[in-house]
Amino acid sequence: MSSLFTLGSLIVGVPAGVFTTISGSQLISASQNPSFLTYFLTVPQVVRETYVTQIIKVNSNSETIIQNVPDEMATEIPRTMLLGFSNNNSVIKRLNKKKWKKQQVELFFDVIAVEGSTTELGGVNNLSSSVLQGFTCTTVRTVKKVQIKKLIKACRRRGNNKVLLAETQLTCMYNYIKADSDVTSFDLYPPDVLLYYDYTLVPRASCRSYFEQLADADFSVFSSALSYKRTALFNNARSCLGITNTSLTKDDIMVLGNMCCTLDGSYIENSDSSILEKLNNCPDLNDGQASAVQTLLLSGKTQYGVKTEKVPSTWNEQTLQDLGMLPLYMKSAFYDNFDKKTKRRFLKFFLKVLKKNGVGRRKKRMLKREIRKSIRNKAKRSIVNECTVGTITQVTISDDTFPFDYDDINQFNCCLSAATVQENLDAITTKVDQEEYLMIVLSKLQEAYAASSTIPEDQVQLLGPASRLATVDNINTWSITQIDTLSSLMDSSNGEWDPSLARAIISKYLSVAGNKLGSTELNTIGGANLCSLDVNVLKNISQQSLKEANALTVSNCTIEKKKELFNIAEQAFSGSTRATATLSSYQLTKTYLEGASLEYIKSLVSLNVSMDMAIFTSLQENVVLNLTVNEVKDLLGTNLPELKSYENETLVQTWVRSQLQSELDTLGIGINGGRANPTTTTKSPSTTTSTSSSTSTTTAGSGSSSSTTSTTTGNGTRIRADAGLSLLAVLALLIMSQHIVV
After folding, report:
1. Which of 301, 335, 566, 699 could serve as 374's disulfide partner, Cβ 3.0–4.6 Å?
2. What pLDDT does residue 87 have?
3. What percentage of the chain's residues is helix, strand, coil (to nearest 5)?
4. Residues 582, 112: contact at Cβ < 8 Å?
5. 3-state secondary structure of 361
6. How many angstroms separate the CA atoms of 715 and 709, rounded?
7. CA distance linking residue 210 with residue 222, whole number of Å
């Protein structure tokens, strides 16, 4: 064990299997060494997971586990080990200190969020952001409403302390505060919650204040189902601020803030140049927005000046640095304005910025491609089949900007030898992002091991993004026997896997004696790649393995696979029949509910689970259509108002049409489109029209598209009913006339 301390940063290369041979007690002791812990936190996740698993074997009591596992590694504790906590002061403080994943903290949020627990911490504002992300309508069902409102306000944090909340959490929060007298005190609540406000309740005199607070919200949080709300927000902002064209003033831009991230290119091109500052903070820009930014920059209407042949340029490396993240989206025409030396220096600087900000390979790949294209535009493409730029060596590869000087792919191919790839694979795949270059790297590696026809395990672990360009034939030459190798290949930061290739890799790993789909493998593979396997393979997953695994997202699976995974999950998490255990079972099982049976969903109705609409709309159609109005009401609980927000979703519309309108009316949320009540007597046309009109309503705040759909559906039904009765009347008259003639 002492030898591990001497490894320092080299511990990152120790395989997971080594830690399975070290007792948990020794690992607990090692965790007390700050220096060791600092280095250990840089190891691959599969190694951290193995480390925590060994610690848990010492004592599997939940409260002992959180005492033994280091705070920064608590994310690796299996969810089922996070149940049954007491509200003991020391337990509450330990839970609050640790780093958690949302799927974990949801399981004990009801323990730490109550008034007694937060008082021990000095108030709700002392709850960590990591803990606050566990707020859901399910987790606060037993918390007093006054305390819930305090928790919501405590989530108003910025910067690195921002509480990351999903749409379903935000809509839940709004439903708790919407009737409060201080709901229009916009500065009390998280900006993201304001995204889901009913705008008709915002006083006209306060609308500017509302949008000023909304300026800090994350507009990318909207799901596709509720994206119409994002459109409605901008329309309301235009009305509030008096915006009548696509030319936004500096004041407009200041008020809109992050809403600028939703604007199309016409606004970006025609607005005050201060819009660039707002766009610089956007999590992403689409092609249209990026093009508009480039057009604005090249127009010379910004503080950065203009670059033309007739006007001396003030653009330099500093200009690029001052643009923040925007250069990430620029095309080659923009980079044509800088010489090669400037682009090299900037790239060296910018790559460090991108790494610090966690920017993915896809975006870095696009950046390098455009810069390379701007260089190639001014240079002749090589037609010789020999290296003229310079042989690629370890020293060449060590340059931060490699392979910048090999903008001609022919030169990269000619100057890179198979031996160099074999000896420097890690360094090469760390720096090379572009697919065409990675294809050459993969080809050279195959060449290096042509004699043995097998690429060794330690090399396979270093393939990185090059692995995504492999074929099944390539994969057949890889040695994949260790969990470390499977983990490195499944690293999502290197890109998504084609299902057929993912299946080939996982199957090759499982073909090794002793290998199975255990909890570590499931976590390593992830839900999307798990769906690539045949259902017969999924049937071999044990209940214990799924029980100890992370919550897996299985939306990519076929319905047959979803059902199989749900059956395993239901048995794995069934546990006790007590209400609390059953509720915990629901929380543990909810990511697998897309394959749930009607019987299971109906069993949740009486448990006050407050199922969110994202889960509800992911259920099988035949399950939803067999739920009554009252069952849906009890199933959704606090989330019931969101049924109206989702009324344009196909599944919701289908369910609504199958229900009696009179029963839908009992929900009190303005849902229309249900079946007319069955009658035993014939009603007059006027009576029918009156009834239809009474059910045709427009719900404020649902967004223009929602209201229009609702109204159109109601009127359409009435018109068809009137036409039917009119036809009967005409037929009756015709028969009578025929009778008279006879």
Report:
1. 335
2. 93
3. 60, 0, 40
4. no
5. helix
6. 10
7. 18
Handedness of CA 496, 586, 170, 167 (dihedral sign): positive
CA 433 to each of CA 99, 336, 464: distance values in angstroms, whole numbers, following the listed order: 32, 21, 10
Which two tokens mark 64?
A: 């002992």
Tell me the pLDDT of the chain averaged across its residues. 90
Report residue 291 as tokens: 């093009």
Task: Specify whether the backbone of 608 is left (phi greater than 0), alpha (psi in -120 to 50) or beta.
Answer: left
Instruction: Please tell me the distance from the alpha carbon of residue 429 to that of residue 242, in angstroms, as a whole number.
Output: 52
Is residue 403 within 8 Å of residue 412, measured between CB atoms? yes
Confidence label for 158 from pLDDT (cuts 50, 70 and 90):
very high
Q: How far apart are CA 354 and CA 328, in angstroms?
A: 9
Report the 3 state secondary structure along 279-297.
HCCCCCCCHHHHHHHHHHH
333 CB-near residues (< 8 Å, 6+ apart): 294, 298, 374
Answer yes or no: are the C-beta atoms of 390 and 362 closer than 8 Å: no
* Paired residues of 660 in beta bridges: 675
| Distance separating alpha carbons of residues 230 and 194, to the nearest angstrom | 11
Whether the CB-CB separation of 688 and 723 falls below 8 Å is answered with: no
d(CA 533, CA 380): 47
Residue type, position 1, single letter: M
Domain layout of the chain by residue ranges: 1-77, 326-379
The predicted-structure confidence for 274-302, as pLDDT tens digits, reads as follows 999 999 999 999 999 999 999 999 988 88
Encode pLDDT of 637-648 as tens digits: 999 999 999 999
Radius of gyration of the chain (CA): 30
User: pLDDT digit string (tens) for 400-410?
Assistant: 999 999 999 99
Q: Which two tokens stand for residue 354?
A: 């991108």
Distance CA 432, CA 43 (A): 22
Strand-pair partners of 455: 478
Buried-exposed string 234-258: b where 16+ CB fall within 10 A, e elsewhere: bebbeebbebeeeebeeebbbbbbb
Of 610, 593, 508, 603, the residue nearest 552 (C-alpha) = 593
**SS3 track for 61-104:** CHHHHHHHCCHHHHHHCCHHHHCCCCCCHHHHHHHHHCCCCHHH
Tokens 């509480």 found at: 163
| Cβ-proximal residues to 101 (8 Å cutoff; 6+ apart), any chain | 75, 550
Which residues, 6+ apart, have CB-to-CB distance to 155 below 8 Å? 132, 135, 163, 165, 173, 190, 193
CA distance between the termini of the chain: 111
- List 478's β-bridge partners, or say none: 455
